Amino acid sequence: MAERRPLLLGLDAGNTVIKAVLFDLSGHQLAEHSLDGTTHKPAAGMVERSVPELWENACSAISICLEKAGTDPGDIVAIGAAGHGNGLYLLDSEGTPLIGIQSLDTRAAAIAAELDEAAGSAMHGISLQRPWPSQTPVVLTWVKRHRPDLYARAATLLFAKDVLTFGLTGQRASDISDMSGAGFLRLPQAAYDAELLCLYGLDDAFRLLPKMHEPSGVVGAVTAAAAAATGLREGTKVVAGFFDVVASALGAGATGPGAASIVAGSWSINQVFSSAPVRDERVFMVAACGEGQFANMENSATSAANLEWYVRTLIDRNGHHHDPFGYVNEVVGRTVPTHDDPLFHPFLYGGRLGAHQRGGFFGLAAWHDEGHMLRALFEGVMFEHRRHIGVLASAGVSFSRAALSGGGARSAHWPQIFADGLGVPVTIADCDETGALGAAMAAAVGSGFYPDVSTAVGAMSRPARTFVPSNEMRGHYDHRYEIWTSLTQAVEPIWRQLACRGAAS
After folding, report:
1. Taking the C-alpha atoms of 398, 84, 122 and 290 in order, what is their torsion angle to the nearest 10 degrees?
2. How many C-beta atoms surround the C-beta of residue 455 within 10 A?
3. Is 320 or 183 the better-scoring residue by pLDDT?
4. CATH of domain 7-252
5. pLDDT classification of 321: cutoffs 50, 70, 90
6. Strand extents, DSSP E, 293-390
7. Which 3 state secondary structure label does DSSP give 20?
8. How much is the pTM?
9. φ/ψ of residue 259, rounded to 5
């Protein structure tokens, strides 16, 4: 009989897709299954999902992943989850989902601006984050004002990954990385804070906050009901898990002071780890990742979500492309960049500098084709990552190389565009599912196989390829970035005019 080996299950709940990935203790991927969820947009600025569908899709993904692996569920020693941060998931006292709001939602833009004007600096002084539209306490404030019936019925506030741990264990719990990433905690203590809640106008919201754990802390165990729904073994340990951007950084091999991670997913994530949090109001957020480790971030919903929209809206209509993303790689690959290529603003879901920012192509000419447009989209996304990194640099946070993860890292061309445009070597991990791997690392620590997350990263993550910047292309991108920045500034008044009517409040 073959010797049985301990396995780890990592779950990753993004804004659209739920993934279940099985790993061994060395971080090698054994099986994976993912399912697309349905996004609902009931009104302008609103981006929601069905919470029951999220759990049902997770059950299916886990079940099919186990079937693909052909493994005994008893070999799985622990489970960890990662998920998109911010947005808002509410349960009532019976555990029934009330609403699921995603982190692409901007309904609370006016409230964010109001809170920022009134108390933004005071909030930053506590949480190292100013209010912004999709931030969980800001969205909760919107619910309190506009859906008081829902607010009164709510019993627990969770994040996307916490919905999965609740389904698996029945425990209402979260972790310090998601809570600090949402601006709910006093930093560096990583503790709930009454003064902070009062600044949001949420002095009565303490009742909604779940028990908080370290990411590798054991939340509970798989229940009999969850075992029946997923095929998992009842009693399997479940840890609290990570904010997905932190999980992706760890899965890509970034850990320890000075390590840098760029995540090109639904969001543009640009983060550098440090042993103490950076205090600078220009920096978007700081997330506590564990004792003595903080991720300093500049983020916005301006990355690969733009390509997802383009593909679904303009390429994959009625499913007439069997491999739409392969088609994208093909046309980008055969397009030779020139100085007068069109430019693209990646603000389909608003920008870091305001929910009023809009996406768009500029400078199209009759000799341009779809390859030029897609290459402009790739560049525009990279340019906004570059702008974010410039903010970090101005706050004293810099790096000489970066680990790239997220959907953009799977592209045949985007990693080289990042290396050329940022001017630093960019490393891609040998694991595509870095978010799920980061969650599995938390599970490995929580089940006692590694003493800490840094050790787990060293044992479970490996680089697959490094993209070295081209000096020639760096000059090309420097010139185009200057034009792109000038264009962004010039169009700003027009965006504000577009947003001045019918804005969500």
Report:
1. -60
2. 15
3. 183
4. 3.30.420.40
5. confident
6. 293-300, 343-345, 360-362
7. strand
8. 0.89
9. -70, 140
Beta partners for residue 162, in sequence order: none
Q: Count the residues in the chain.
A: 505
Candidates 235, 240, 234; CA nearest to 218 is: 240
Residue 123 has pLDDT above 70, yes or no: yes
Which whole number is the average pLDDT over 81-101?
A: 97
- Reported in sequence order, the residue ranges of 355-460 that DSSP labels E, i.e. its strands, are 360-362, 402-405, 426-429
- Kindly tell me the burial class for residue 351, based on how many C-beta atoms sit within 10 Å of its own C-beta (0-12, 13-18, 19 or more): buried
Alpha-carbon span 19 to 143, nearest angstrom: 29
Structure-block tokens of residue 235:
């009693």
State the Cα–Cα distance between residues 301 and 85, nearest whole angstrom: 12
Distance, in Å, from the CA atom of 304 to the CA atom of 491, rounded to the nearest integer, reads 22
Q: Mean pLDDT across the chain, nearest whole number?
A: 94
The residues with which 33 forms a beta bridge, in sequence order, are 20
Taking the C-alpha atoms of residue 197 and residue 184, their distance in angstroms, rounded to an integer, is 8
> Would you say 382 and 348 are in contact if contact means Cβ atoms under 8 Å apart?
no
- Highest mean pLDDT out of 173-182, 248-257, 295-304, 310-319: 173-182
How far is residue 334 from each of residues 83, 143, 265, 372, 489, measured CA to CA in Å? 35, 48, 24, 10, 31
Angle at 182 between CA 176 and CA 186, to 5 degrees: 60
Distance CA 351, CA 359 (A): 9
Asked if the model's pLDDT at residue 505 lies above 70, the reply is no
- 468 is written with which tokens? 């070295």
Angle at 245 between CA 9 and CA 32, to 5 degrees: 30
Beta-sheet pairing, 76-83 with 7-13: parallel
Looking at residue 132, the DSSP 8-state letter turns out to be -
Give the 3-state secondary structure of residue 170.
coil
pLDDT tens string 215-239: 999 999 999 999 999 999 999 999 9
Q: Give the torsion sign (CA, 412, 295, 15, 430).
A: positive
Integer Cα distance of 284 and 108 in angstroms: 17
Which single residue is written with the structure tokens 């007439």?
Answer: 320
Q: If DSSP states are collapsed to H, E and C, what string results for 50-76? A: CHHHHHHHHHHHHHHHHHHHCCCHHHE
Measure the CA dihedral 447/159/102/442, to 10°: -20
Please give the span between the terminal C-alpha atoms of the chain, in angstroms, as a whole number. Answer: 64
Average pLDDT over residues 422-443: 96
